[in-house]
Amino acid sequence: MIFRQLWYLVKAAGSNLWTFRGRNLVSVLIIGFSFLVIGIFLALSNNLTYLGQQLSNNLAISFFLDRNLKPGDLEEIKNQILASELVDQVTYVSSADALARFRSNFPELQEIIDNLKSNPFPPSFEVKLKEKILSLQAIVYFMEKIKSLKGVTDVQFNQEWVEKMESLSRIVQAVGFFLGGILILASFFIISNVVRLNVFARKNEIEILRLVGATNTFIRIPFLLEGFVLGLLGSLVSLFILFILIKTFPIYIGSSLGAARELFSLRPLTLEQAGWLIAGGVVTGTLGSVTSVSRFLRV
């Protein structure tokens, strides 16, 4: 008996979806577009976060040293650096090595160096961080700790660029959720109106169900299933289109951006983000149906 009732409810919902497939398709596409906007901004945000992490992981930190440090003091500073779990490799760069590197990298400026009577470059330790996700706070704490050691005169690290990437990532996410939220609200009202039209179209059938003793919940369930399915399909459509965009964007659009291509690339969503998009579509569709049924279905 229970299975027969369940089969009837599912069949009724499927019948409504197919019978009114035109307006249901419009609902699915609007939901899909709404969540696609959120998905695109999440993909951009993921890319900016990734670039920020790459900057944190791949850029070396340079600790500049006093020229008059003794070998024992140099070894002590090196041991303090290696004691950090963030450090992968430490390289000592002498003043002579730094000067030779400068001459090699900037040959057009050799005349300036030749006019100087002394080597302007201090010795330093170049520190490469481990290739894993590191928080900016941990890196800053590490730099401050080493900088406080006797014999360390200065530290160089492109912290500002990392902070800018992280800030830009948060801004992109906020803009995406704002625009997507407006579109989701529109989707909510569209689904509500679609379900209301379906209720009116089945007015006679609902009256018959009432006469044979059907409960209010029994009558409502098919319409709730419709909203659930519409929301689910819409979110899946958004993920599918986003997948296509991620694959085609570098080919047809990214190539025209030149150096900015890496900055505006789309990085795939995480499983958690995809799950939240699907859940958001389901919730939007179901709530739209609940609102419509509660307001327009007098049972």
Helix content: over 70%
Rg estimate, integer Å = 31 Å
What is the residue-averaged pLDDT? 76
Structural class, by secondary structure, is alpha+beta
The profile of the biggest β sheet is: 4 strands, antiparallel
Strand content: 5-15%
For the largest sheet, list the strands in their spatial order.
Answer: 2-3-1-4
Overall spatial form:
rod-shaped
Number of helical segments with 4 or more residues: 10
- According to DSSP, the number of beta strands is 4
Poorly predicted regions are none
Q: What is the succession of H and E elements? A: HHEHEHHEHEHHHH
Commentary on this structure:
This protein is of the alpha+beta class and 299 residues long. It folds into two domains: 2-54 and 163-296, no CATH class; 60-157, Alpha-Beta Plaits (2-Layer Sandwich). The chain contains ten helices and four strands, in the order ααβαβααβαβαααα. The chain has helices at 2-19, 21-58, 71-82, 95-105, 110-115, 136-147, 159-201, 203-211, 216-252, 271-296, and strands at 61-65, 87-93, 124-129, 152-156. It has a four-stranded antiparallel beta sheet. Helix 2 packs across helix 9, helix 7 crosses helix 9 (216-252) and helix 7 (159-201) packs parallel to helix 10. The longest helix has 43 residues, at 159-201. 27% of the residues are buried. The mean pLDDT is 76.
Task: Sum this structure up briefly.
By secondary structure, the chain is of the alpha+beta class. The protein has ten helices and four strands; from the N terminus they run ααβαβααβαβαααα. A four-stranded antiparallel beta sheet has the order 2-3-1-4.
